[in-house]
Write a structure and sequence with these properties.
146 residues, mainly alpha, binds zinc ion, single chain, 54% helix
């Protein structure tokens, strides 16, 4: 071992000993040394977990949609990842289309449920609703008088 001290006094440290050349397994992508059991052979290359993640992401695009599989993932993707990032106007347009489709069934129970949901909403703003109806009535009277 080659020990030399730099500078003088009590703060001096010997140089680090020469590091022996590493000959163990390495990841073929990033070159990092790994334990063999932490490497995985895919398409003839030994890769560490981190490089494997990137490799799958780039090479398995056909599997993206299939990955969104469980109800939890579907909620994460559809609601939290996609829908919540849209402009409010866009959210309203898409949600209203879904609402119409959801209740487009000819079954009277579905129609009744739909009408109930709408009524609940209008009831919460019934003062505004009354103004709305009166303004329409005024328009009708004006038109009738013309
Ligand atoms: Zn790697």
């Amino acid at each position: 071992m080659n020990i030399e001290t730099r500078g003088l006094g009590a703060g001096s440290y010997p140089d680090a000993p020469d590091i022996e050349e590493y000959t163990g397994p390495v990841c073929s992508k990033c070159g990092d040394p790994r334990e063999l059991h932490d490497l995985r052979e895919v398409d003839g290359e030994l890769m560490c977990r981190w490089c494997l993640e990137d490799y799958y992401l780039d090479n398995c695009r056909d599997e993206y949609w299939g990955f969104i599989e469980t109800p939890e993932q579907q909620y994460e993707f559809a609601v939290k990842h996609w829908f919540s990032e849209l402009e409010p106007q866009e959210q309203a347009r898409i949600a209203l289309e879904a609402f119409q489709r959801e209740f487009s069934s000819p079954f009277p129970q579905r129609q009744n449920l739909r009408d109930e949901i709408i009524r609940d909403y209008v009831e919460q703003g019934k003062s505004d609703f009354a103004d709305y109806i009166e303004s329409k009535a005024e328009l009708r009277i004006k038109r009738g008088a013309a």
